[in-house]
Target: inositol-1,4-bisphosphate 1-phosphatase
Amino acid sequence: MSLLLIWFVFTLGEKIILRLCPTEKETVELLSKVLNGNKLASEALAKVVHQDVTFTDPTLDSVEINIPQDILGIWVDPIDSTYQYIKGSADVKSNQGIFPSGLQCVTILIGVYDIQTGVPLMGVINQPFVSQDLHTLRWKGQCYWGLSYMETKIHSLQPSISKRNSSDTRSQLTTNTSSEAEFSHQFSAVISTSEKETIKAALSRVCGERVFPAAGAGYKSLCVVQGLVDIYIFSEDTTFKWDSCAPHAILRAMGGGMVDLKECLERNPETGPDLLQLVYHVENAGATGVDRWANRGGLIAYRSRKQLETFLSHLMQNLADTHT
Model:
């Protein structure tokens, strides 16, 4: 049994290594020290971590793939959108299926990447708070996954969703409209509530009213994965590799990706977005602490390369107009 090590440093100066013990009883005793003697909570947690979990999926069961384990690195975000988790709001209403805040914005992110190239290979997004039973008050969650390795590209979303996304993309790229504004307003985007005003102004011209603020980097990426929006765009450097690796891997499996926003805006028009994909194995030069792994140039998450190219051309034009 592998050991799960977590460091806890208490205000009194005591340091405890929390590990998964050989027996459930031993894990309960160790957890009790961390939880100040709360035996009921310790027993509940120990029972969960010691249970055998069987995960089956028809899509995965139909595929046989061998990936060398020695090339794999993992980024994990155990609770993305921590503030929303602590706040615990359960009564937030969605806007066209997108929650601006609340427990629905909380995600657990597990991303696997190639340590040699930095390319994301596998991703899992667990959304534990999707819907709540009003009688029992218990929550129902949903898990999404994607795998992109060599020629194998598979993901957990239903085929109908993928087909709808492809159809939407084609219609957005081929529909004849009477004006440039009408065409550009067919895009939709999810953004951070702290996004820069210049980006918001440009997006309002590109997307019209279809710009949705939401909490949580993982959740905003999930909105793109689900097809609720076309684009997730963020211009700041306050997301990190553990925020983006998992959704990036899923989007790659769907034919999309996640690129550096700053490099996209500064690139040669002849350069394709595939050259600008985020990677996960290289630290930021000159940075210290967690900033070593920040997505310094911001990011754009998308499902379609053609759609990204068209969106960028509109965004760049409107950013120029905004500055002017």
